[in-house]
Amino acid sequence: MARMSVEERRRALIESAYRVIADHGVEGATTRRICAHAGMPLASFHYAFESRTALLNAVMEQAVPVDIERMLNAVLPAADYEEPTTIEVIRRNMERQFHAFYDLLKADPGRMQAAIALGIYAHNHPELQEVGQTMYRELYRIAAEGLRAISDNAPVTWNRPVEELGPFVIAATNSITLIHLSTGDEKVIDSIIGAVSDQLSTYVTVD
């Protein structure tokens, strides 16, 4: 393979680790398997990371938040509201966008599965607990920013701080993911999406 800089190796290993975790779980994401996926020799791993733990840290700090932000951009768009804007219009829009998230999930379920698996793994491993907590705080922030974009682009305000609602959005996307992965029951997922949209709309005030 062509000679790669250390930064290029790091990026390739981070993305490969994320993909391998999606396919094989955190325990199955060995350095050998990750390097094979990245198309680089195992011996080159330590040129980029001092340990597998350091690589998992990087995945949680970089790859997961970027990936979830991309998906949440589909969940919480900044425009496309009907006129006149009402709470019901906002509720229907949020419902549509949670369904859009679900469509993305079905297209590539492994990446959300990897994000959840990493959070659980980090919680159970002291050397990763802090970065796992930081990862979720970043996800909450991303969700809160998406909610803030709604009130920035429609004549509505939130009657509860979006920082408090961000975790609710992440809990919803995690629930949708887990139901899809474990049962694939679309009726249950539709029910979750409806309930989440109903609940979020109770925090909306039309200006």
Automatic annotation (TrEMBL):
Residue ranges the UniProt entry marks as DNA-binding: 30-49
Pfam entry (one): TetR_N
Segments passing through the bilayer: none
InterPro entries on file: Homeodomain-like_sf, HTH-type_TetR-like_transc_reg, HTH_TetR
Oxidoreductase among keywords: no
Keyword set includes DNA-binding: yes
Keywords: DNA-binding, Transcription, Transcription regulation
Record protein name field: TetR family transcriptional regulator
Protein source organism: Gordonia paraffinivorans NBRC 108238
